Amino acid sequence: xxxxxxxxxxxxxxxxxxxxxxxxxxxxxxxxxxxxxxxxxxxxxxxxxxxxxxxxxxxxxxxxxxxxxxxxxxxxxxxxxxxxxxxxxxxxxxxxxxxxxxxxxxxxxxxxxxxxxxxxxxxxxxxxxxxxxxxxxxxxxxxxxxxxxxxxxxxxxxxxxxxxxxxxxxxxxxxxxxxxxxxxxxxxxxxxxxxxxxxxxxxxxxxxxxxxxxxxxxxxxxxxxxxxxxxxxxxxxxxxxxxxxxxxxxxxxxxxxxxxxxxxxxxxxxxxxxxxxxxxxxxxxxxxxxxxxxxxxxxxxxxxxxxxxxxxxx
Length: 314
Hints:
The chain is of the alpha+beta class. It folds into 2 domains: 7-140, 3-Layer(aba) Sandwich (Aminopeptidase), CATH 3.40.630; 166-312, Aminopeptidase. The chain is built from 9 helices and 12 strands. A hairpin with a 5-residue loop joins strand 8 (224-227) and strand 9. The radius of gyration is 21 Å and the shape is elongated.
């Protein structure tokens, strides 16, 4: 494929969303609101064009109010382009976009892509995923983790409490941080395991709390501590609502109480809290390799409706 006469540039603004969305992806319907709410900026949304034909695109997402991109979550190429030219277009675009959109010398944000649950068994889906991963690998990225995307749907039975555990709201941030720190011992979560190579469990808990949990605007009285009838903490669950969906943001059993099936009771309580608000769905995710957690969500009636690939430059 001829790679000459290509234009690589950010979109001019909302008026070019129609152009940017000519390549299909599940996030397309969210982009307009993301721009309106400050989660995206036109200068973070790049296109590779030949004339008026969109050949590739890339876009970063950020938390409202942040001045730098947090996540590269859109990277698409025209899958009808000839191979290997379509990958080369994506590489050129990503190099140009990263040089302009990311602060010099700063770590590159993680890459995330939502993909079908059976993508390896579907030829076109597998090719699309592999092409995008190849583009990222040619800019120095590597696979970090593959995750399961999970969803509870209204009408799915939620078992009533069986009395083994007692649930109460979190008393204060310090109590939750203490339990989060303890829960990191023996974790199977890839993000947490990676952070524990660079910082203490307490530091990782604070980073998680301040970077995610403290930012949710949904009621904190949804957050529940699970205890034995005598009062000893067993674990916790953080039901919440992010900018897009009701979610189970965090669920954990303390190391000394694992192996007794308490995860089922705790996850059910978090699900009940959100279900009482007539939500259209509840979303959650866990690493593909975290089999105990994946099995717990399956027992709770959550459907594996998709996967997520994450890649890193670190």
